[in-house]
Amino acid sequence: MALAQQSGEIFATYGGKLGRRIAEFDWTSTPIGPIASWPRALYHNVGLILANPTPFVLLWGEQGVMIYNDAYSVIAGGRDSSLLGSNVREGWPEVADFNDNVMRVGLAGGTQSYKDHRLTLERNGRPEDVWLNLDYSPVLGDDGKPAGVIAVVVETTQTVLARTALQ
């Protein structure tokens, strides 16, 4: 069986809830196309994030098509059902300018890191202030050039609020 055919099955078997969703998702409706045509770099990075307990999101291509793991789906909150396969700027329109910069820097080969960064996100039907540790790195494609951006996203809201309350 070809790697392309196996990958969807591997994601479904070993990738938790999101692995199954990724394997079943209609990727032909996105700029990255069906799993069978994905570049090796995309397969490997999706496997990496799915196997990780830390919240990861992969933003693939110029549009930043979102592929993420179970831990990131918790951060997405009620928005999780609509984010998979969406373009990051459309998936999170309230922070589209922020994500424009993330994509611009990452696709140029740069990294970014934010600690206890405040964003107002609409995750559960209403805007809420959240604090996040965000680390962005470029992801190389099969040609060795940046083809996407990988983000480690850890929510620190409770820590920031507790620290503020103590002060």
Please tag this protein with its features.
single chain; 167 residues; alpha+beta; 5-stranded antiparallel beta sheet; globular; disordered N terminus
Notes on the protein architecture:
This protein is α+β, with helices and mostly antiparallel strands and 167 residues long. It contains eight helices and five strands. It has helices at residues 3-14, 16-24, 40-50, 70-76, 80-83, 88-91, 96-107, 157-166, and strands spanning 56-60, 65-68, 112-122, 127-140, 146-155. It has a five-stranded antiparallel sheet. Helix 1 (3-14) runs parallel beside helix 3 (40-50).
Concise account of the structure shown:
This protein has 167 residues and is an alpha+beta fold. It has helices spanning 3-14, 16-24, 40-50, 70-76, 80-83, 88-91, 96-107, 157-166, and strands spanning 56-60, 65-68, 112-122, 127-140, 146-155.
How do the strands and helices of this protein lay out in sequence?
Blueprint: H1 3-14, H2 16-24, H3 40-50, E1 56-60, E2 65-68, H4 70-76, H5 80-83, H6 88-91, H7 96-107, E3 112-122, E4 127-140, E5 146-155, H8 157-166
Antiparallel strand pairs: 1-2, 1-5, 3-4, 4-5
Helix pairs in contact: 1-2, 1-3
Continuous helix count = 8
Main sheet strand line-up: 2-1-5-4-3
Strand content: 25-35%
Helix fraction?
40-55%
Question: Which class of secondary structure composition applies to the elements?
Answer: alpha+beta
Give the radius of gyration: 16 Å
Report the biggest beta sheet as strand number plus sense, adding barrel if it closes: 5 strands, antiparallel
Distance between the termini: 60 Å
- What overall form do the CA principal axes indicate? globular
List the helices and strands in order.
HHHEEHHHHEEEH
